[in-house]
Amino acid sequence: MKRILGLYRRYREIISYLVAGGLATVVALGSFWLFFSVIGLEENLSNILSDICATLFAYVTNKVYVFRSKCETWGRFFREMFSFFSARVFAVLFNMIVFWAVNRVCQSLIGLEQDLSAWIAKLAIQVTYIVLNYVLSKLFVFRKKNR
Length: 147
What we know:
Number of strands: 0
Mean pLDDT: 86
Largest sheet: none
Order of helices and strands: HHHHH
Shape: globular
Helix content: over 70%
């Protein structure tokens, strides 16, 4: 038990990020399902809206649980928030390009129907999206020297 606890303490940040990233993925996929399958919005708009929902969720979980960031001043808080959302805008733009490309390949080259290709594209980008966001958050947003 001590060994498991020691491993958790050593890798707490990564484990917490994977849990938070997994939950953000659930938010992204759930909101994509809501916008695309239930409401019937176009797949690219549904993808953008689901990314916004997941990003808002991710900011709170990353700040509070993963990186345990504390801001002593409002200025520092707004700088941190601006950095987080700027990094996520970059990640969302990357996400949009990859989503569009995978979706088009699935429809045009493979011949899948629109609904299936949109879901394959959304699932395909989630892993790279989580890794990219961790790197951006770790290196640029929640740097320990900024705390």
